Predict the 3D structure of the following.
Amino acid sequence: MQLQAFASFSKGSLPAPFLIAFIVATLTACSYLELVTKYPQAAGAALYTHKAFGVHFVTFLVAFGVMCSGITSASTASRAFAANFGAMINVVRQNWMGGSAFEPADGLITIIAVIFIALVAAINLRGVADSVNTNVVLTLVELSGLLIVIFVGFFAITQGKADLSRVVVFDTPEDRSIFVAVTAGATLAFFAMVGFEDSVNMAEEVREPERIFPKIMLTGLGITGLIYILVSISAISLVPAGELGQGEAPLFKVVQAGAPNLPVDQIFPLISMFAVANSALTSRIHDCQHLLPRAAP
């Protein structure tokens, strides 16, 4: 989704916004690392605010803001999961059962979303170990989708089917400068790399967080940045930015352009379903579990 959004902004080089976002995210991560190693407790931003100012009302505002962000993100992820679940049902009906496609009603989407949120809550309430183990599986599935895009893109490059010149060329609209386009794209790309609040909430579950957190967080951020930059190179070299910014499935267009015979229409709905499930399970409900009891120690 970030790829589609800032492709519509930048209309050109996609790696540049990702690279800038990675630098900004690294600086933010260093700030969180300084705080989590000093205060290795759950609650994240609310705890750090309280330690800094000692004002309960300010702490409450930060805690409430984080909680609202979590609820909003979880509800959005649940709707996305339900939509991808409906798309996956269509794939099964059409390709395996010989049935016809159908459009899920809004009421059915809502019911699936509510069931999904309840399932995520149940996994989190069972304990951290179950939540983390499930998250590892979902992350591997989500990663497989990005690796498919990378491999398809670089295979197409070796076959001469891609245009690498688009990686460094900007084509911004007349009413928008390169600086504005790249800055807007980097702002959106930044959200693909954040997770500091989620990770520091797990500080109390880690042995020796002062030693473990810095190397693990920076390693994870580096791997994430590399993967997104490689995905952006594959995407922009196969599909012009203007086309990536249109429609609802930009990565689907990339794989179709590089490997038209690959049955991505049967693969990507499932991967997308696991990806949004991963987002909800990793962060938001777990935020709400840790945040309120620790907001004002």
Notes: The two ends are 38 Å apart (CA to CA). The CA atoms of residues 38 and 210 lie 8 Å apart. The chain has twelve helices and no strands.
